[in-house]
Every structure is written in C-alpha cells, then in structure tokens.
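Q: Here's a chain of 60 amino acids. Please give me its 3D structure as tokens.
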Amino acid sequence: MVRIILELLTIIQLLLWGAFVYSLLYNAYGFSSPAVLSAITLGSIGFIIVETIRLVREVI
C-alpha cells in the first residue's frame, strides 16, 4: 500500500512540475499547445483514477 501511495505522490509531483514548466513557456515565449495541455490534463486525471482504484483494492 505504501508503494502505491509513493507512486501516486511521485507522479503528482512530476505532473505539477510539468504544469509549472508549461506555464513558464506560455508566459515567457507565448507557447500554447492545446494538444499538450489536453494530454497533461487527461493523463493526470486518468492516472489518479487508476492509482485510486489500485489503492482501494489494496485496502479491501
């Protein structure tokens, strides 16, 4: 169970850094890509759902 929580926290940290880098690129250079933004959003939501399901199965 601890391994699943650590994986979840690690990926959330990487997603936050990715969002931070994206916002820096957007503000500094005007970089805007709807495909990248959609991929980050959908990927993060999907990963959180998958890891939550794994965590619930581990607890039950």
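Q: Can you summarize the key feature?
A: Residues 2-29 form the longest helix (28 residues).
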